[in-house]
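REQUEST FORM: STRUCTURE PREDICTION
Request ID: SP-0412
Submitted by: Lab K.M.
Chain count: 1
Length (residues): 276
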Amino acid sequence: MLLTYIDWHTSPEIFEIFGFPIRWYGLMFAMAFLAGYQVLSYMFKKEGRSLEEADELLLYAMIATVVGARMGHYFFYEYPLLLSDPVKFFISMIKPPYAGLASHGAVIGMLIAFYLYSKKRNVPYLYVTDRVVPTAALGGAFIRFGNLMNSEIVGKQTDVPWAFNFFNDPSLGHDYLEVVPRHPSQLYECLSCLVLFVILMWFWSKKKQNTTNGFMTAIFLLYVFILRFFYEFLKENQVSFENDMAFNMGQWLSVPVVLFATGVLVYAFRNPKKEL
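STATUS: Completed
RESULT:
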């Protein structure tokens, strides 16, 4: 057998500056926006749009991602706290450190933000989302790599030869006896996002002149959240209340996104592309 289990001892901290820790996840989060901006600027430049528009769209995306992901985590995964202590719930949601983010919440936040942007700039909503989804796929790859460096969102126990032993997983503790080979589910999603980024950029570069608005958005959402539904079978539940559910929260939340994306795809096929 060429591959053996990988012992993952990586610390989530890279180094400290004056006692302030610089963490891999924070770096990957920043890289997601920086790399995404470069891609978005390239696309806008090729289409004859101004960099000012790209700058503003990035700002909308940044705010929507952080706020949406944070609120999504609390309303989707911490709602028992809302029922038991609403004051503590809202204080915890806005109080640092921001150790809980949900991708479904980020999607909702961005869909709302891009609607506001499209109205302000007077451009078709689905045109905007089509230009953002390649950057979102690339950003997703960075974020999931950050999860890997944090040893979080780990997979279930497995005997596949590429399994990881997560020695620093905060949800499992640091007892050596608790460390078992697990699916590197973060890496699966990271690589899937990279593949999607390549597909979307190729499609945009070759087909953008003849593509209806919304088609790329629908493909992005279907690809990400159908895969997310099945990847969840390989992952440990993030919160305890999911243990009694037939499908976990990530799977249930993926269903309406897939239905929405299907509707967008139907709309795209029924409505011809409008030149800007």
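NOTES: The mean pLDDT is 85.
Reviewed by: T.R.
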